[in-house]
Design a protein that fits this description.
- By secondary structure, the protein is α/β, with parallel strands linked by helices.
- It has one domain: Leucine Aminopeptidase, subunit E, domain 1 (3-Layer(aba) Sandwich), CATH 3.40.220.10.
- Helices cover 29% and strands 22% of the residues.
- Helix 4 links the parallel strand 6 and strand 7.
- Helix 3 packs across helix 4.
- The protein is globular and about 40 Å long.
């Protein structure tokens, strides 16, 4: 998948197998949907940040345009996590996700934290099933390069193979196997 690099500001996009809590970024962006639930990555976030979502979670709904900026209190390498709302899970479409990513792009320019790491937007292997399409939407909607984080190396290889021209290298967590 190209050469390994230790980066500060990624250019162009970077694929990474880091765990969310260890990715070298200023901000980790995670898409959320309505109804809001604390499963998967959000459960990990809640657990590693001393039940932060349990404390602020009543106000989080996952509605379109919603933004929740959470400090990681030095428990993650990135100092901030941004939850961004994608809207109703049952009404998600590629068009809706792209619109929300374009709005998120404007919001990210305003807060100017780089590099930004992203989980694939709305990727749920039981609902959407295609991480490559979600990566393509992310690349279309976000104008500045960032880091796509997924500890599943097979998924990273699929994304790299299908959208190769966007990625120059893989940022690997020390000790991960290929």
């Amino acid at each position: 998948m190209g050469k390994e690099k230790n980066i500060q500001t990624p250019s162009p996009w970077v694929l990474s197998d880091f765990m969310l809590s260890k990715v070298p970024a200023e901000l980790v962006a995670i898409g959320i949907v309505h109804p809001f639930s604390q499963q998967g990555a959000l459960g990990y976030l809640n657990h590693t940040l001393d039940l932060i979502l349990d404390r602020v979670g009543e106000g989080i709904e996952g509605r379109r345009g919603e933004r929740v900026l959470i400090p990681t209190m030095n428990r993650w390498k990135a100092p901030w996590v941004l939850l961004y709302g994608l809207g109703d899970k049952e009404q998600l479409s590629k068009e809706v996700i792209l619109e929300e990513l374009c709005q998120l792009d404007s919001d990210l320019k305003a807060i100017n934290m780089e590099p930004t790491a992203f989980l694939l937007p709305a990727y749920d292997p039981y609902h959407w099933g295609d991480p490559v399409e979600m990566a393509q939407l992310l690349l279309k909607g976000i104008s500045r390069p960032g880091i796509i984080v997924n500890p599943n190396t097979e998924i990273l290889h699929r994304i790299h193979y299908k959208v190769r021209r966007y990625f120059n290298y893989l940022l690997k967590e020390k000790g991960s196997s290929q």
